[in-house]
Amino acid sequence: MSKKKEQFSVFDHVLVPKHEIVPDSEVEAILAELRVESKDRLPKILPTDPCVKALKAKRGDLIRILRKEPTGEAVYYRVVV
Amino acid sequence: MEFTEKQVGAIKFTLFSPETIRKMSVIKVTVPDTYNEDGYPIDGGLMDQHMGVIDPGLRCKTCGGTVHTCPGHFGHIDLVRPVLHSEFARVVAVLLKVTCSSCSRALVKKGAKDTFGELLSEDELLAQMKKTKKCPYCGAKQEDIKYEKPTTIMEGKRALLPIEIRERLAKIPDEDLELIGMDPESARPEWMVLTALPIPPVQMRPSIILETGERSEDDITHKLVDIIRINQRLDANLNAGAPQLIIEDLWELLQYHVTTYFNNESANVPPARHRSGRPLKTLSQRLKGKEGRFRYNLSGKRVNFSSRTVVSPDPNISINEVGVPRAVAEELTVPIYVTPWNLEECKEMLKRTEYPKIVYVTGKDGRRRRVMEKNVEELLAALDVGWVLERQLKDGDPVIFNRQPSLHRISMMCHKTKVLPGRTFRLHVAVCPPYNADFDGDEMNLHVPQTYEARAETEELMLVERQIISPRNGSAIIQPNEDHVSGAYLLTRKGVKLTKDEATRFLGAAGIYELPEPEKDGTYSGKKVFSMLFPKDLNMEYKTRLCKEVNECSKEKCPYDGYVIIRNGILEHGSMEKKGYSGLILEKLFNDYGPEVAREFIDRSTKMAVYSVTHFGFSVGLENYKLDKKTLEKINEIRDKAIKEVEGLIVKYKNKTLPRSPGKTLKETLEEQIMMVLNHARDSTGSILREYFGQDNTSIVMANIGSRGSILNVIQMAAFLGQQAVRSKRIKRGYKGRVLPHFKIGDMGAYARGFVGSSFMKGLTPTEYFFHAAGGRESIVNTAIRTARSGYMQRRLINALQDLYTDYDRSVRDADGNIIQLRYGGDMKDPMRSKKV
Ligand SMILES: [Mg+2]
Ligand SMILES: [Zn+2]
Ligand SMILES: [Zn+2]
Ligand SMILES: [Zn+2]
């Protein structure tokens, strides 16, 4: 039997884009930029999402996703629900 | 104007009590007639003026209103004997079943609802009551109640009379009704047995006057006449003390008339007919079905300022245009708003008495008036800023053209009106693909935008030339096709030389009135003539589908003239074919020079191509597919060799020497190999045909340049059809062990399992014909299923996305303001405006 579980990070996978928790101090500015009154208006992400789990993000946290696509880089925000 | 916002919380349908019917009635109708000899409504008749007026000049005796103002009022008939309302007969039967025949109490113990009733649903409670055979109140034995369509209720072997039914229902106490599940306030059950009948207002059943001057009454009036007549006869017989038998006969007849009055399509009732033998359209028939009030008039809204007719082709108009029949243009209108700047122009327009004229004017008072010879002077004098004139559609007006099913946005595009003689909408053939239109009887719709804003938007966003590139993948969808491609190829082939006269005609057809550089011998090369359509600074190089070289194309020296080089707008090498002409060149023009240039290229080049295809002549016929004896033998040899090979495979299969393919059973291996052998045999005839027919056979030429058909079509016409398949397998199902009784049971040979060895030229044998039909059926079934399924998927997608929009910051949001995408498509890229990759 193995002594220790093999450690695997989802972010190592080629198809998983970079995820990061947005610091609370930046949230307000982002909401203003997107012209929404609250985080409820933003796309959602489940707390059970492997990326959210890996980041240890909590409910209400804003996640910034940086995607590299053939047509360029894209920024996306999702709120943990 | 003031608005009050209210929401409908609930709608409650209730029954009319006879008292209500009489209370709302303005007159008791007693005369089974309508108008007297002078043409006036008879008092107390079915057209009594108390119930409203339909004749101009007369006034309503109830409200004093005229034809335009009187809303109509209900009258009533008192039925001398009650009759069952046929649409409630079933409910009445249930009520009789669950109540006592002698005391009319619900057949359940007092307080039952409190004890076990709570636990039971209404249906279960009713089912219990129906089973009760003895009244818990009076102990009366309950006989079986049976309902027979349409209005008969049997108790044991005896039919109950409506009068008895009504008495029983009336005796049911309110509390018991609640237990059964009825609201006695709004629907007492005895009201389902009619003693009074409301007569609808005359406005609901107007009589029409025929050309002969005769009056023709509405079907409902006819029916009511019947009811009143029988009612009177029944009354007279009752008063005269007629025998019971006669009374019952008349009573039944009254029941029949009332039943058919409500619904002339009731089960087990012969429909009441008009004198002509046509069944009458009574109340239900007005509401029910596709042509009923709901589906036809309420859900089926029609659009104004629109037109629909058959489409036919016109290669001489621009792709931006649509040919509109004069008759349609005279009917459709465009509003012109009178301003200080166009006042004079408007006056001139208003003076017109011929075609593009003003049909209606709307003054500042909002009154809409038709322009007529007698009021033109008056209108001209009054014409002022702020008026709206409605002008007939004329050349250049933007309209929205559409063909159903409108599956994508390019199913509706903006075309500029081009008024033409004839009765069909004319469409440039290059715009057929986005609409998926052809001219075998297709009809299309045309809509005229009604504000300046709408006109501008239509033109800016939807104009055909802006839709040349498909939003699906960035390739051209509005493109030259079929004969256009053939024509362009014929002109740009190697070695085409035109005289000056000919060159002039080619260019003239395209609207070009200058000549290119002549050759040394004074002729004009086809390539140079065609090059006149290109912008002067166009530079392109590409390999066409004509090049059949095994290795890399030798470009300028390509033996097939299959490498196109355009230098400074001159086609120096290569010929036009589908890929370049309808694709690469067109897309480059659109992307580098803009929609107008691309549109002009399509407009002009297709005209030149049509001229070219008629100039050189291009046609197909049986000659295209006729083979000489030697070639035919060669092909038959290939075919028969393949059949032999199949037989060999079968023998190997039977004595199990056939090597099995990995992952397949032996039988699957056999089938796979047979298919391979036969398909290969068919395809290998292609090269023989190509060689025999040469490069001049029009069918082969079309397949090569991609204008129409493929080499497979040639093979099937000249050589043989080959293996027919159902679900990509040889045809198997049918009789036991064989497809058709013409074969031996267990025959696995090529011909027994769907191989067609004949060509369309030769003709198919009966069994081959059957196999061909079986194979053809599959594709038809598949398309039918595919359209149904994709239609439903599309519907769900559209419903989910319908109120999403792209905001000014290019984020996609829904109607509540939730962000769906931070940037449209994640990358703000529009495939229609991006280069193909
Ligand atoms: Mg058609
Ligand atoms: Zn009235
Ligand atoms: Zn009883
Ligand atoms: Zn080549």
The string of secondary-structure elements of chain A, in order, is: EHEHEE
Task: Report the CATH C-level class of chain A.
Answer: Alpha Beta
Strand order of the largest sheet of chain A: 1-3-4-2
Q: What do the pLDDT scores of chain B average to? A: 90
The number of helical elements of chain B comes to 25
Summarize the helices and strands and which ones pair or pack.
The complex is a heterodimer of chains A (81) and B (837).
Chain A: E1 18-21, H1 24-34, E2 44-45, H2 50-55, E3 62-69, E4 72-80
Parallel strand pairs in A: 2-4
Antiparallel strand pairs in A: 1-3, 3-4
Chain B: H1 18-24, E1 75-84, H2 89-98, H3 112-115, H4 122-131, E2 145-148, E3 152-155, E4 158-159, H5 162-171, H6 174-180, E5 193-199, E6 208-209, E7 215-216, H7 219-239, H8 244-262, H9 283-287, H10 293-298, E8 306-313, E9 321-325, H11 326-331, E10 333-337, H12 343-351, E11 358-362, E12 368-370, H13 376-382, E13 388-392, E14 398-402, E15 412-420, E16 425-427, H14 432-435, E17 443-447, H15 452-462, H16 483-492, E18 497-498, H17 500-509, E19 524-525, H18 526-531, E20 540-543, E21 563-567, E22 570-573, H19 578-593, H20 595-616, H21 629-654, H22 666-693, H23 698-705, H24 711-718, E23 722-723, E24 725-726, E25 729-730, E26 755-756, H25 766-801, E27 805-806, E28 812-813, E29 819-821
Parallel strand pairs in B: 8-16, 9-15
Antiparallel strand pairs in B: 1-5, 2-3, 3-4, 6-7, 8-17, 10-13, 11-12, 11-13, 14-15, 14-17, 18-19, 20-21, 21-22, 23-26, 24-25, 27-28, 28-29
Helix pairs in contact in B: 7-8, 16-20, 17-20, 19-20, 21-22, 22-24
The structure holds magnesium ion and zinc ion (ZN) (3 copies).
One zinc ion binds at residues 52, 60, 62-63, 65, 70, 73 of chain B.
